Amino acid sequence: MQDSPNSHNGHQSPPTHHHKLGFVGQLAKKFIDSKLTPLIIIVAILLGIGATLMLPREEEPQITVPMADVFVQMPGASAKDVEQRVTAPMEKLIKELPGVEYVYSTSRAGSSVVIVRFLVGQNTEDSIVQLYNKLYANFDRIPAGVSQPLIKSRAINDVPILALTLSGDGVTGTELRQIAAQLDEQIKQIPDVSETTLIGGQKRQLRVELDPARLKAYGITPIEISQAFQSQNSELTGGALSQNNQSFLVRTQSFIRSPEDAKGIVVAVANNQPVYLRDVATVTDGSEEPASYVLFGYGDIAQQHSSKETNKAENITKHTGEMEAVTIAIAKRGGANAIQVSHRVLHKLEQIKHNYLPKNVKLTVTRDYGETAAERSNELLFHMLIAVGSVTLLMWFAMGKKEAMVVAVSIPVTLSLTLASFVFYGFSLNRVTFFALIFSIGILVDDAIVVVENVGRHLELPENKTRLKFSKNRQRTLRQIVLEAVDEVGNPTILATVAVIAAILPMAFVGGLMGPYMRPIPLGASAAMIFSALVAFIIVPWTTIQVFTGGSHGGHQEGEEDALTKLYRRFMYPLIHYPKRGTTFLIATTLALVVIVVGLAGFKLVILKMLPFDNKSELQVVVNMPEGTTLEQTARVTREMGQYLASVPEVINYQSYVGTSSPYNFNGLVRHYFLRSGSNVADIQVNFLPREDRKRQSHDIAKAIRPKLKEIGDRYSARIQIAEIPPGPPVLQTLVTEIYGPEYKGQIDLAKEIYQLYKSTDGVVDVDWYVESPQTDYHLVIDREKATLNGISPTQISQVLQMAISGQNVGLLHDENSREDVAINLRFSQSSRTSLEDLKALNVKGTNGNLVPLSSLVKTETATVDTSIYHKNLQPVVYVLGDVSGRVESSVYAMLALQPQIDKLTPAVGAKIQTYLTEQPPTTETYSIKWDGEWQVTYEVFRDLSIAFAVVMLLIYALVVGWFQSFTTPLAIMAAIPFSLVGIMPAHWLMGSFFTATSMIGFIAGAGIVVRNSIILVDFIELRLKEGMPLEEAVIDAGAVRFRPMLLTAAAVIVGSAIILADPIFQGLAISLMAGEVASLLLSRSAVPILYYKLWRKHKSSVPEPFADKETAIANFEI
């Protein structure tokens, strides 16, 4: 039968007889009048509230990555010797452990550091115990002269959540540290506070400065003075003495408790007279010599903004320079609520500050992850409420007031149950879990929409209106109509829900650091879909009865078609009845898909990137001076950088850490910034105004300050890095090239050329490499023969030199009032150790008692300090690294620009350079490079997401085959999935957004939603076929009638996801969901019916009209 496009101005009504209810109808029947149903609603809401109060709140997810550092000393050994004797054997043992993913090591003169990183999700305690057992079970293999391994576990909970910086005009670092030590003692008493660390200032120290001339006059050596301290600074209990039926303890008392006690130590006897320490040395109760500086400065904007301080400065404007400072870094226990811990600490400080803080000392909160977590949680909670309200209003305008009320009940119930599931998952409330909830809002209302819309449609059927009008028991009739409507869409709703879960859940199996970071999204959304289906079948029917009783529902009118629906019928008629036109339409749509996707990505109109930077309130400037630079010179560079940073409009304050590391974040934990120390290193912690008080995002500020900081650094030959907090799992650096080869010198030579290529490549910034600058080393070679003849051992000579240059702690000053240990440091005066000649003039006592100058026992040689040797997974490696900046801020494009230039370096090393993209080279017999950094994470994530997408396709196909009992029908249903890219890619281009991992997640998640709509269409087609409608008309009718719930579903997804657009990281997720849903909705409304018709039209003649049941239709249509 060939009808005109307008021959079906409506659609045929379903049969009016009372059919037997299926599983969903029976389920709804049990609860539609039950008194338990309102109790279920109340309990669900209470569970959600309880979960919200119970779950710990954090800004970012806690990722379990067991790590450990192993430190081994081999004094006097060269870097190569340490590598061969210590590092290599230890690495092999560690690599044997199950669950070890990476083994990094650094071998330098005299020491070895091995960093062990286990697989993500491994049990931390078990991993560390295995490491301990492995190393100490092989303790007998430690060579002579090598120390025992020192093993330190590292975990995410070690990251300080709070940093408190003490500073003040005219207050010394020693005074600040003593105040900080007192505060630290109070802070440690607070529940859930874990490790606290004092950074900066100089510890109190009893300094004993030896006078070489006096020592020589009395014939005393530094070693003898050291021995005198060790023997005379002790107390022992002699035992118990019984007298007069009482027991008394007898003990000797000779602890050094004051500088006067130290001055009175007898260090020798000369001419039968005691020689006291005061005779040969100057004793000072002061502070240790500075090995680091911590400086605090305000930004110019501070005078206009109330900085967050527990002891506010009355006049910040007077602080035009930097002040000495001490920072207290505070970490929390695992599982503790960061917001609560932070609040407790600050509350206690507010109570005790008047007892500990002088008026000229200010305490500034320079990090508060508890506050940022609270701000982000409250903000996202507010956004979630906006999304709920927006979706409810949408339903109100689209479906009617009563339908919206039903949906409004289902949303909080479903969200509450989803929140409760987070407790069982072990999640915390963080930005990702909140976004999982917000993301779920757009899809969890689908089931309720479909059910409510179908109930409304059934209530408007003429026969049902008649039933209600003449019913003796209107309530019972209404109940029966609702059950029939729910049962009609029950099975396809279950299938569609399972399809959405099948599309989302595989993403939970993404590996690496990114897996647990994003896991709350697939797990949370899957739980939300399960609960939404249960709510739709249990809560929605009951709510519908309560709301609809007593009047019209106010929904759409059955049989009415608007102008757009009529236009749709006119558009579809020729495409169905003239197959060539339908084929042309499908081919054109497919070609448009290919052109858009390939064109936008291929011409860099849409940039592929792992994740964009977030808008944070802090960043770090990492400074590396050439090896051998003095502490004062490094401080000079950071001061100049600090002066510039103070002028940046958004900078509220900054702290310079010279010679030491700042309180580290998760990025610093993975990069091991906390191990940075030495006179040539520094970093500057920069804090910005709150996000709401500034126009520029933190990443834009970072790009703006980089040129000036680089200019300052270049003047002093300093290498700088702008270390922003990464948006996801941190890596060594954005762009990393690992160089492998048969000879370490050849690797360094190749790395030097690649280093220059980095510097000359547009968009590559913050270039650095793991090769130390050449540094002169003086070797005092001992004449063993002369030393032996004088009865002097090499150890004695080394001890004297160590005391002269570095000093030696020979004990503690036993001052009970000091919060920190007060070391007694033995050292030569500054004036007597300024040159190599001063050192060679020192004396050592031989066995005959004569003093022998070092100049007669040693000769001087100059050499270059050994370069550190790095390993990764047992292979020697040299790292070259950099960041990317500019329009194309993606490591992928920088790699593509660098690779052809690296390929041309072949003649420099005499052999072809092999390139490895994802795996380390299997051998180091030839020179090769491997790309790492952000690229490695990007590859792993997109690989796993692609595998997840393939699994999604198979699962959806299997589900649809199982439901429709056809191998071809799923092709029509799934055809709409790639069509979503027609909207996704142009939307990213128009919004100037990167196509990121979250964009891919949105695309995959959208596949389930798209399939859901297609299932609704195909199921309706088969329903019409069952009623006897011809195939040509059934496929057109499905697109016309079922477009409304499809449109509502799409609108709910768009409204629910729109709130995510403001977040830089999850913006890609929102764009993919919104644009993909719009494109798929518009295209699938036509493409799915056309494809279904083309797949089944050959069997049209064999289709009986009408079908007795669905099984008969399927049997006749089977291919």
Strand tally: 31
Radius of gyration: 37 Å
Number of domain modules: 5
CATH architectural type of the largest domain: 2-Layer Sandwich
> Percent helix among the residues?
40-55%
Shape descriptor: elongated
Give the tags.
elongated, disordered C terminus, 5 domains, 1119 residues, nine-stranded antiparallel β-sheet, Alpha-Beta Plaits, 37 helices, Multidrug efflux transporter AcrB transmembrane fold, alpha+beta
Structure description:
- This protein is α+β, with helices and mostly antiparallel strands and 1119 residues long.
- It folds into 5 domains: 18-54 and 400-560, Multidrug efflux transporter AcrB transmembrane fold, CATH 1.20.1640; 65-154, Alpha-Beta Plaits (2-Layer Sandwich); 162-203 and 290-371 and 613-726, Multidrug efflux transporter AcrB pore domain (Alpha-Beta Plaits, 2-Layer Sandwich), CATH 3.30.70; 208-285 and 776-864, 2-Layer Sandwich (Multidrug efflux transporter AcrB TolC docking domain, DN and DC subdomains); 562-605 and 965-1119, Multidrug efflux transporter AcrB transmembrane domain (Multidrug efflux transporter AcrB transmembrane fold, Up-down Bundle).
- It is built from 37 helices and 31 strands.
- Strands 1, 2, 3, 4, 20, 21, 28, 29, 30 and 31 form a 10-stranded mixed beta sheet that branches. Strands 5, 6, 13, 14, 15, 16, 17, 18 and 19 form a 9-stranded antiparallel beta sheet that branches.
- α11 packs parallel to α13.
- The relative contact order is 0.12.
- Residues 1-17, 306-319 and 1100-1119 have low confidence and may be disordered.
